[in-house]
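Quick start: what a row looks like.
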Amino acid sequence: MVKTYKSAVDLWLAIILIGTPLTIIFTGVSIGFGLHLLQWHATIGKAVGFVLFGSGLALATLIAMFSLPCRYTLREHELNIQCGILQADVPYNKIRRLELSCSVWSAPALSLNRVKIVLDDGIRLISPKDRTAFIADLQARIDQQATQ
């Protein structure tokens, strides 16, 4: 049976990931339409506003492409980790142990409350919403795979 767990999302990270591009976009609109305290020349203001607006949209697009959706799918023989356009499959027979973690290392996770998956050839860090249920479900699948 396939089961999917969504990533937990830390509020501070959501504020940064959403707030940064929005701030750039609103700054661009403000400068482009002259709604600011600085007295920009009209042509320069519109150009700067356009560049900032475009940069904010590009940043928002990149953030969305590499972070949405962020989910972990337990399939028949492997764990599928998806964070935006990036995907990885981790076979159950390669997993050696599961640990709770609060790591700041870069990972396909939107929270610092993570599960550390120790593999034969490294680790994976993920952040399912319900870490306890995820670990129990994944461990059951690992055990089932080992007995087959």
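That is the whole record. The domain at 1-148 is CATH 2.30.29.30 (PH-domain like). The beta strands are 3-6, 70-74, 78-83, 86-91, 95-101, 114-119, 122-126.
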